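Listing S7. Sequence submitted for prediction.
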Amino acid sequence: MPNITFNAFSFLQKKLKEKHIEYANVTLKVNKGSCAADLIRQVQLMPEEVEVVFINGKVASFDTILQENDRVALVPPGTPGPYRVLLGFKNKHL
């Protein structure tokens, strides 16, 4: 079972806090062969609540398989315009 470092940003933090799920620099175990979409379900979020997944600092698709020591961050819809460009997901459709 790979270990990853998990972070959630903005509105997702509030949703996870309400569910008593840690969301900042948390080490999580995921099943071997799990993808980002599986992680989203593991932390009790719906895919439509996540606009972008970052894996090791790069935008990744929801079907990207997670590897040992990956750093994974979830970003919700509604991230302000200038940050979208800086983060590399302006008009990105995954």
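Caption to Listing S7: primary sequence and predicted structure tokens for the chain studied. Helices lie at 11-18, 36-42, 81-87. The domain at 3-79 is CATH 3.10.20.30 (Ubiquitin-like (UB roll)).
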